[in-house]
Design goal:
The complex is a heterodimer of chains A (184) and B (356).
Chain A: E1 2-10, H1 15-28, E2 32-37, H2 41-44, E3 47-55, E4 67-72, H3 75-81, E5 85-93, E6 108-111, H4 114-120, H5 127-138, H6 144-154, H7 163-176, E7 178-179
Helix pairs in contact in A: 1-6, 4-5, 5-7
Chain B: E1 4-8, H1 9-19, E2 24-27, H2 34-43, H3 45-48, E3 52-55, H4 59-71, E4 76-80, H5 82-97, E5 102-110, E6 116-119, H6 124-128, E7 139-141, H7 146-163, E8 166-172, H8 173-177, E9 179-183, H9 219-235, E10 242-245, E11 252-255, H10 258-273, E12 278-283, E13 285-287, H11 291-298, E14 303-308, H12 314-322, E15 328-332, H13 341-351
Parallel strand pairs in B: 2-3, 2-4, 4-5, 5-8, 7-8, 11-12, 11-14, 14-15
Antiparallel strand pairs in B: 1-9, 5-6, 7-13, 10-12
Helix pairs in contact in B: 1-2, 1-7, 4-5, 10-13, 11-12
Classes of the chains: A alpha/beta (184), B alpha/beta (356).
Chain lengths: 184, 356
């Protein structure tokens, strides 16, 4: 099994840390992983993306031009990455602030109202965990149990009291994710 | 028990340096390698092993601090990125001339000049052909994973002391900034007892003083010194390292190192999935270069392509090894742009079409 994922959005949305937790979760289930962030000028321009690869075999190229899954958290990312999802692949996006919705009919597209849900939970900072929950519900590449182990490993000890809040956010994401209706 | 971590390549170099007991690091920040100095500073290795970390006032100062520390027989290292490494070239030439062991890490960025912070392999010539003035060589290691970033710190120091020669780890932001699973070496104490027969400290009344210099005004002596250096560089061939991926039955061969080799692994996977016999030779040492292995493979394959993030530098060494037996091509991206596996594959199909 190899899963090639792009996560993209604004800086500050937790794109890189979501990728890191996903990578840690992969390690917890003894997979090979790579986490390749955008670190160049695009990072300084306010957008962030990270390519995460989880695989049972040695990971080859950490740089890709097509993905099994795209997790897209703003309009620029939808515009940039929709066409790069492999046919039959998966896209998850937060419809909040999206005006031009994805239109492909050869991939599976899901929506998660993560920003709204995180605000309702009075914990906007767990936005990225709601999204992560949506992803592992639709495509269970990693077990929730391993995600929690991954969180424990990636968060410094002084933040471990936040793990339950994050776990709740992941579970909410699993509950609210839904297939997107195509705006044909 | 194995200690696994998820780390950036730059951090893996820093952590490995502490764990294998390096004595001193002197450096100056520059993207995309600043995490080496940042990580070392945050870790307070002076408390873990007594390792010295010093942010110098410039790259020129840093390499000269390495020169001084290396002269005492201690394990000293520095890291920088392309423009900073250019500033260090005078010092590196002196260290090579004085035959001192040290480790230098170049996390290459796109050039020339200040260039871009994006990954590039355009410093191949500078790294493998001398870089500074005079007939000298560095041992050049080319890691292609975060694991190799960690492993090559110890390997680098072993080779540096074996040959009393500077060793360069040649990498780029792709490997430096990427996080992967890495098995860290166990923590060792710094070496207190070591061969002091050539160092400038610890003179005892029963031996002559040692002199460390790269200056030899007597042409006969300098001539002899150069012959000795060249003999040493030739002898390094016994430590050549490479990885063969799908080479056994390959009809066409890619040659790539470091980040480009990672991309080419995927190219080989895709091509093999389509039933095409494509192989990849990945040099892990760029000096010594796997000349003999490439020569051997050139008797087996129909064509060879060197795939680099440059305008074509390693391809010259590949051509020397192949010596005209089969066509040799170059494919590469410049200035910090990275070729995708699909880009390389279409170049391969283009050149080797009919066969592939």
């Amino acid at each position: 099994m190899t899963e090639e994922i792009i996560i993209a959005g604004f800086g500050g949305q937790g794109v890189l840390s979501m990728g890191k937790i996903l990578a840690y979760s992969g390690i917890m289930q003894e997979q090979e992983v790579s986490w390749m962030p955008s670190y160049g000028p695009e990072m300084r321009g306010g957008t962030a993306n990270v390519t995460v690869i989880l695989s049972d075999d040695r990971v080859s190229s950490p740089v890709l031009q097509s993905y099994d899954t795209a997790i897209l958290l703003n309009q620029q990312s939808v515009d940039k990455f929709e066409s790069l999802v492999k046919p039959g692949g998966l896209m998850i996006y937060d419809p909040n602030s999206i005006t031009c919705h994805p239109e492909r009919d050869d991939i599976r597209i899901f929506q998660v109202n993560a920003a709204e849900e995180a605000a309702r939970m009075k914990s906007p900072i767990t936005f990225n965990m709601v999204v992560l929950g949506a992803y592992i519900k639709v495509n269970p590449v990693v077990d929730l149990e391993n995600v929690i182990k991954g969180l424990r490993k990636s968060l410094p000890e002084r933040h471990h009291h936040l793990i339950p809040v994050n776990e709740k956010a992941i579970q909410r994401g699993m509950e609210i994710v839904k297939a997107a209706k195509l705006h044909a | 028990m194995k200690e696994l971590a998820l780390m950036k390549g730059n951090e893996a170099i820093a952590e490995a340096a502490i764990r294998i007991g390096v004595d001193a690091y002197f450096g100056y920040p520059i993207t995309p390698q600043s995490e080496v100095l940042e990580y070392l500073t945050l870790q307070r290795p002076e408390e873990r092993t007594g390792m010295v970390i010093l942010q110098a006032e410039s790259e020129v100062a840093a390499i000269n601090m390495v020169y001084g520390a290396a002269g005492t027989g201690k394990r000293a290292m520095t890291s920088s990125s392309s423009p900073g490494i250019s500033l260090m070239q005078e010092g590196i030439s002196y260290i090579a001339g004085a035959e001192l062991p040290c480790l230098i890490v170049n996390v290459v960025r796109g050039g020339p000049g200040l260039g871009t912070i994006q990954p590039s392999q355009a410093d191949y010539f500078q790294s493998t052909k001398g870089g500074g003035h005079g007939d000298y060589r560095l041992i050049v290691l080319a890691p292609a994973s975060v694991q190799e970033m960690a492993d090559y710190v110890e390997l680098g120091f072993d080779l540096a002391f074996k040959y009393r020669n500077p060793v360069l780890i040649l990498t780029d932001g792709l490997i430096g900034q990427m996080m992967e699973k890495v098995e860290l070496p166990p923590q060792k104490a710094r070496i207190e007892e070591f061969d002091q027969s050539w160092v400038i400290t610890g003179k005892t009344p029963d031996r002559e003083r040692n002199i460390i210099t790269s200056l030899n005004l007597d042409p006969d002596l300098q001539y002899e010194h150069n012959l000795k250096l060249q003999e040493k560089y030739r002898s390094m061939n016994e430590d050549v390292m490479f990885e063969r991926i799908g080479c056994d039955d390959a009809e066409f061969l890619l040659v790539a190192y470091g980040s480009s080799a990672r991309i080419c692994q995927k190219v080989v996977d895709i091509a093999r999935g389509r039933g095409k016999k494509l192989g990849l030779l990945r040099p892990q040492t760029l000096f010594p270069f796997p000349t003999d292995e490439i020569a051997r493979l050139s008797r087996q394959v129909k064509g060879i392509m060197s795939v680099e993030l440059s305008a074509g530098q390693m391809v010259e060494d590949v051509k020397l090894a192949v010596n005209g037996k089969v066509p040799v091509y170059h494919y590469g991206m410049l200035g910090g742009k990275i070729h995708s596996p699909e880009d390389v594959l279409s170049a391969v199909e283009d050149k080797f079409i009919g066969g592939l």
